Structures are given as structure tokens and as C-alpha cells.
Amino acid sequence: MSTSADPTGPSRAPAKVKAATIYDVAQAAGVSHQTVSRFLTGFEGIRPATRERVVQALDDLGYRPNLTARSLKSGQSHRIGALTHEISQVGPARIVEGASIAAREAGYVLDIVSLDTRNPLAIEESLALITQHDLAGVLALAVTDEMTRAFEATSFRVPAYVASETDGAEDDPRGMLSRVGIPALVAHLAGLGHRRLVHIAGPTIWSAARNRIRAYDAAIDAQGLVSAGILHGDWSAASGYRAIAELTDLPDATAYVVANDQMALGAMLALKERGLRIPDDISIVGVDDIPEAAYFDPPLTTLRNDFEGQGRAAVSRLLARIERSEAVPVLVPPPLLVARRSSGPAPQR
Amino acid sequence: MSTSADPTGPSRAPAKVKAATIYDVAQAAGVSHQTVSRFLTGFEGIRPATRERVVQALDDLGYRPNLTARSLKSGQSHRIGALTHEISQVGPARIVEGASIAAREAGYVLDIVSLDTRNPLAIEESLALITQHDLAGVLALAVTDEMTRAFEATSFRVPAYVASETDGAEDDPRGMLSRVGIPALVAHLAGLGHRRLVHIAGPTIWSAARNRIRAYDAAIDAQGLVSAGILHGDWSAASGYRAIAELTDLPDATAYVVANDQMALGAMLALKERGLRIPDDISIVGVDDIPEAAYFDPPLTTLRNDFEGQGRAAVSRLLARIERSEAVPVLVPPPLLVARRSSGPAPQR
DNA sequence: CAACTGGATGTTATCGACAACATCCTAGTT
DNA sequence: AACTAGGATGTTGTCGATAACATCCAGTTG
């Protein structure tokens, strides 16, 4: 879908009435502003009669607290800075969406800054901008080397949290890789009789891409298979297409493990254009299970990643730090293998 | 790509040093805080010697203005609230990205709130949350009926701007429809000899979907063609698939005009599963030109929408209102027809 | 040389909320 | 009836910045 800006469209002139403050409310209720403030902060010891008048005045004036003033005094804004790359990609976008919803549920608003990977200068500027908005915390949602570097170079005076795919790495190295989910894909292919695989990886400045490469290598070893090589793309369908189309000879392999669904789509088209049938001649599997993957031709075997859950989890962990609560961290379910028609038994030679 | 939250990953403990204020700077420079403030706001009449000391102190202390305090006093935050739906969809996501970049270039930050279409209550809550953050302005980036209603029911005390696809509607009804771009698609199909078309529409609570339906109808009339019906989807590939798969008999048409690329993907799979060849037996065209569309099988003929440009345009218009500048509004180029292999000559009967 | 002018700088008030402290009132005690 | 404890409420200060007003001083003028 799309929408475009409407030059003459509906809009609202800024109403000149300025918002009611606690002083206005206090005057209307015939009490001091502090009584109003007390009511708002949930103080118990207010006489019912007084309380009633305050409630009434609050309602009459349509009072809305001014969060700017509140955060100036209390030093805590209810805003979280979220840094991400390429929000137009499905993965990051859905992580952001999950984070946004989780933040809102907790009474926070997300300041989203989508950084351009190709423009390191913009990253610096954005961080400078963000550090001024005294935020409650900062979240890095899509992790590239640039992002990591920028994060390390910046001194946030607030809790910062980097959401990365190296889930559980510190606790258990095996845990980390298994969480990436690639092993399940490799095992699936091994079960179908495939012995020689190829990996099409994402750009290695992304930690997610590096993790997937490591997971692929480890899974190949674990299953006693052979890797016929690693090709490189940039997450886009175009790069997946090129990775295959530009090869003079296809690698000697019967299955492709592609680091995301978009590249898998491009790779499938290139393979089909070379006259190969999927999955009869060659199997291909992706990662992410974007909503379109089930409607590729053939429908793509892939890993379902719970992006919204990842976003929620990142926020919940940041909030735990901000509010120093000991809340049980939200868990992200491990990726789920979704077998579709793009993977089939290895061809008999 | 994807990333997931890292429970033990890199993070930064909040440094306990609190930020330097203009008072700290003033003391360090041996001047009054007001002199510092004057320097910061670009006041000319400061003696070079004094200025030098201020600059030095500013630098030594690593001063960063506290925007919360600034906006409390000045009443103008540099934040813009952006309301959107389904940011995980490519269109909205890229509009948001464009808006976000444009906002940042102007020194603003976007507070993005992604509303759930299915939960009107959440819309109210989000608007309440947003109205408290005294924003410089509010932007509605994806327009559904719920959004419009909520906007009308809420009293923003700031400029609000609704970005919609009814581009130029008020100026020129023909302009509005042509901007939607559908006429170019219909003309393209007519040029290939198609006479009977079907439209697969998006959910009619979206103004974009309604506009596209109207544009389709108008274009059919203008070209003297016949519409064999309008099917309905929800923008997803799954709904495009179902729209075709659930029909007992296909409509008597040689071409499908689908309101977005994702539904077109699903529809193509369903058509192929019915044994139809694209484009030999049936032509299909989409809208949006998502990056994957060129790698569908066959590659999809579609309309290229400049989403980032739309986002930028929306921000620039809102900023013009906020700052009451007479800046020339950014123009969004009209959608461009991208002909690929999914559309071909109408079959001879 | 005193009065004046205007540029440079300092002092105080303000935004809206919350917090600390001060004060008032009521009910219970002797 | 005077006294007190403690709950209810009011007053003042604070957060960091900007605005309005006040003051200081050097150089000009008559």
C-alpha cells in the first residue's frame, strides 16, 4: 500500500488555547497546586470532599500532564531512543514495531532513528541529536559494525542496550548458535539426503550475517556435510539473483542455505532461469519467514523468526535496567523451521 | 536479516556524571549563565575575549543542551509525532524512513507510533500519550478510517498534517486520480490488447485502497474497457492468493490489476496453480514496486512509488506549518510504470 | 567635566511539575 | 478547657533553559 503527501489535505490549525496546568486545576478546585499534584501522583491522604473537587476540576479542564515539565523535574523522560538501520527491511521494521508496542504499553514512546549504513557521519549526528533529548534509555535494534562503533564512541548518560542475535552467547556458546536457527535448516536438508551445501550470506558488517555464517559452518561440521562455498549478498533480492547469475559455473551442491528470504527469492529466479527445477534439481531454504515467503514459487522453506517478540524482549530488558526492576525478562521463542516446497529430497546422481 | 535481544550482551552502565548545564559552563568561564545562553542562541554582541572563554568552557565540559528544559521554557519541542499503521509493511515503513530522515535533517526527531488497525482502543491511548509529549507537530502517515476518526476526535494543540494519497484532490479531481498511477497501468494493459480486467483491491478502510478503486474504475471508463469485477484482499500475499484460490470460476478477464505487489505475488501463485501461464494466458500488474517485485516469477509489472519522497514531503509540509516558513514544498514525483514480464499481449481467443 | 548613550553583561522571573518543609486543623487526651 | 499528635493542606524551592529587566562601563557630546 502507499500514501502520499496531500498538499491541500485535511489538517488542523493549532488551537490557541493552551493546555490546563495543575495551577489552573488548583484554582478551579479551590485548592493548592500541590494538592492537585498529590492527587496525580496517587497520594492517599486526601479528604474525600477535596478529592472530589479535584477530580471534577481535572475533568472540567481536560487536564493533561505536561511530560516535558515532569521530566525536567524528575530527570526521567518516558522516551527511549531506538537506533536501527534500514527500517524499510521487513526484519528491522517488525522488530521496531514490536519494540514500539512494548514501549507504549509501558508508557514510553520510542524515538526511532533509522541510520543510513552508508553514511557514518549521519550516525554521529543522530547520536548527538539523541543524547540531547534526555532519554530514559537507548536501544540499538539492528547491529552493524558501524552501529557498534558509534555506540562505543558515544557516552550515553542513560542505560543503553544492544539487541543482537548472539543470544545466550556468554552463557553457552552452543546456545548462541542454536538460537540463530540455521542448524535446524541444515539438519532439515541433511535429512533430505543433501550432502553438499552452499551458503549465501548477508553483508558481514551485520552481526546477524556473521552469526549466520558461523552457525552454518558449525552445522555443516556437526552434520558431517561439505560446504561447497559461501556467496555474498547484501540482503536484497537483487543481490541473491546476482550471486547466482554472475557465476560462470554453479557450485557442486544440491542445496542452498540463504541468509534471508529476499536473497532466496532472487537466487531462485536465477536458478530457474538457468533451467534448474526447484526442488527437483536443487533445494533452497531461507531465513526469516517473511509473509511473502509462503507465496514464492515454489513456497520457501525457511525459519520463522519472531521479530515482534525480539523487539518486545529488547524493550523489556532495557526497561528492567531503567527501572531497576527484577522483572522476569521476556523470552524470545527460538526460530521455528517451516518446511515448504522449495526443499525436497536430494537428486540421485 | 534479523537480530534478537541479547540477555547478556554488550551494554553500558549509566555513567553517574550528570550533564553540564549552562550554570556549570558559566562558572567555568567566569561569566553569568545568561551570557552562555546568549552565546548558544547566536547572539552577536559578545566581546571576543568573553566569547573565547565561553567557547573554551563549553568545550572543556562537553556541554550538551538539555532539550527538555529548552522546550519547557520555549514551549517548542523538536519532536514530531508520527502515526502510522503496520510499519512492517514495506510502504509505510519506507514512508516513515523518508520522514525520519527529513525530520532529522531539520533537527527534529520523530516519535513514531505504530497503531494496530484492529485495536481502536490502542489508537485512543496512543493519541493520549502523544498529546502529552508536547510535540512540535503531529503527522499521520498511513491513512485509514480509524486514523482519520481518531485524528478528528483528538484536539492537538499543535499543527497536524495528514498525508494521504488524494494528491491534488482539492485542486483538480483528475489530478488526484492520475497521481494514484493506476491509469498508467490500465493504459499499459489496454495497449497490450486487454479488454476485460479485474481489480484486486486492498481493505477499504484504507484511503489508499479506496483511491485505487476509484482510479481503476475511472481508468476503465476512460479507456473504454470492461471491468469483470473487483476482488478484495488485505494487502497481504496470503489474501491475494485466497482471492483467486477461493473462486470456483475465474472471472472472464485477461488481466488483473492488483492494488499492491504482495497481493499480486499471492494471486500469481494461485493462478499458476490453476494451470494458467503468466503472461501468456493472463497478465498481472501490481502497485508499489517493492524491491522483490523484480524477482517474482515472472518479474512483476508495477508502479514505482517514491515512498521516501512521500515521507520527506509530508515532513516538509508539516515543518512549513510549524515554522510558518514559506518554503517551497517538496514535490513527490508521480509514480512510474515499470514494465516487466508479468504483463504481455492479450491472448487471442 | 558632567550628562548621556548604548553595548556588554548580570539578576530575577518564568515555564509546569514535583519535593521538602511549613502550617493548619481536627480529634483524642488529661 | 488547654494540649498534643498527626493527618490534610499550603508555601517555597528546584530542575535547565530563555526572556525581561537591571546594571555597569567606556566613549561621546555639549
Automatic annotation (TrEMBL), chains A, B:
Superkingdom as given in the UniProt entry: Bacteria
The alphabetical list of record keywords is: DNA-binding, Transcription, Transcription regulation
Q: Where is the HTH lacI-type domain?
A: 20-74
The record, for CDD domains, names:
HTH_LacI (cd01392), PBP1_LacI (cd01574)
Please indicate if the UniProt record lists DNA-binding as a keyword: yes
The record's section on Pfam families has: LacI, Peripla_BP_3
- Which molecular-function annotation in GO is an example for this chain? transcription cis-regulatory region binding
UniProt xrefs under InterPro entries: HTH_LacI (IPR000843), LacI/GalR-like_sensor (IPR046335), Lambda_DNA-bd_dom_sf (IPR010982), Peripla_BP_I (IPR028082)
Query: What is the recorded name of this protein?
Result: LacI family transcriptional regulator
Q: Which organism is it from?
A: Cryobacterium arcticum
- Taxon lineage: Bacteria, Bacillati, Actinomycetota, Actinomycetes, Micrococcales
